[in-house]
Design a protein that fits this description.
alpha+beta, single chain, 397 residues, 7-stranded mixed sheet
């Protein structure tokens, strides 16, 4: 009866709750760590823990959920088992191992940071929070996570999961967004940070947010600290905190590409290092402009980019793929370079590659899908070798 009355009063009070977080219960820490010590998932970066493995895992987890991150991490550390091997690798090698993980700038910055760590021969690892922040691609969260896990530095690491958990523990609506809101939550968790186990505490908070205190329909019935959570104790639906912010619509791009073949090889080029897909190899093509159809765009882009002309284009299908920053629809064509009618020169910055060579290069996933539609090269053709356009073909991936 007393608890029922208290919850009713608290619910009424929560309607006018301040945006500032309250102080979390100190009883959260021991209960949370007991749960984490016995229920933590056997993730690969938790085995043979060292600064390199912790750092690589945190960079991968910046923009990738845990389950796909496991596959990426295992593939990455198998190819680059230590920071020296990463520092010595070419950018193309690193991007190939990263293929399909998205946010390729992370891979480029990992390599740049590895080269900085190994600049004087033997690795010189940062030993302070500021030292980690000085590395390329290491922001405030990643620096705090690695410093607490690798060096036991007593600092709170706040990713999206931790912010959500902290907001619910403290009944913060997090109307104060950005740095100010994050600082308030960081201060709140700092008040219950355990001595000597900051890394385990940070991992436990993030694990709770990933597996139990989820954005929608949190599993409060099995939460090890729900009895101390203000959102659970005062709200009918703890999932209301923090308030959801509508996402801006993802930009959509329609483009056309050409798989241009000459003697069993494809013409490809490498994108500039900057940008979301920087450093990856792709087919000639570009955005469909207003008033153009896909075939006209494919022909125009091929001529503008390579100064080469193809015979008739064969439409082989359409690829649709959603990247994190944008979605793309690729209209895919294939054509032969009519070598007897043109000098078979290679444009500057471009390369003729066999299917096996192309597979060995780092490529955008949309390009990988496009090449599945294109299939194997036809090999040497008759002198004129023009290809008839077949508009009835309409495969979609």
């Amino acid at each position: 009866m007393i608890l029922t009355r208290w919850k009713g009063v608290a619910r009424r009070a929560s309607r006018t709750a301040t945006t500032r977080p309250g102080r979390p219960s100190p009883k959260i820490t021991p209960a949370l760590l007991r749960w984490f010590d016995t229920r933590q998932r056997p993730l690969p970066w938790r085995r043979r823990r060292n600064p390199y493995r912790v750092w690589v895992s945190e960079v991968i987890l910046q923009q990738t959920r845990v389950l796909p991150a496991v596959r990426i991490f295992e593939r990455f550390v198998q190819r680059f088992p230590n920071v020296q091997s990463l520092a010595e690798a070419s950018e193309e090698e690193v991007l190939k191992v990263w293929e399909g993980a998205g946010y390729y700038a992370r891979a480029r910055r990992l390599r740049a940071a590895a080269r900085q760590i190994c600049a004087h021969g033997a690795p010189r690892w940062p030993r302070t929070l500021e030292g980690w922040r000085s590395l390329p691609g290491v922001g405030s969260y990643t620096a705090a996570a690695v410093a607490s896990l690798a060096d036991a530095i007593p600092v709170v690491a706040l990713d999206a999961n931790a912010k959500r958990v902290a907001a619910r523990w403290t009944l913060a609506t997090v109307a104060e967004r950005g740095h100010r809101g994050a600082s308030a939550l960081e201060h709140a968790l700092g008040s219950i940070l355990p001595t000597g186990r900051a890394g385990a505490f940070n991992e436990a908070v993030m694990e709770l947010g990933e597996t139990i205190c989820t954005p929608r329909a949190p599993k409060c019935g099995i939460c090890p600290v729900s009895r101390y959570c203000l959102a659970f104790r005062t709200l009918d639906d703890p999932g209301r905190i923090p308030p959801r912010v509508p996402r801006a619509p993802r930009p959509r791009i329609s483009a056309a590409v050409v798989a241009l073949e000459r003697n069993g090889r494809w013409l490809v080029h490498r994108r500039a290092s900057e940008g979301p897909l920087g450093g990856l190899w792709e087919l000639p093509g570009g955005k469909i402009e207003r008033g153009e159809n896909a075939e006209r765009t494919a022909r125009r882009e091929l001529e503008e980019e390579t100064c080469l002309q193809a015979g008739r284009l064969e439409g082989v299908g359409t690829v649709r793929h959603a990247y994190t920053q944008f979605a793309v629809e690729l209209h895919v064509f294939r054509a032969d370079l009519d070598a007897p009618l043109q000098r078979p020169t290679t444009p500057a910055g471009w390369r003729w590659v066999s299917p096996r060579e192309f597979e060995a290069l780092p490529r955008p996933i949309a390009t990988v899908k496009a090449m599945r539609l294109v299939g194997a090269p036809r090999g040497p053709r008759s002198p004129r070798g023009a290809i008839g356009h077949n508009p009835s073909v309409r495969k979609t991936i």
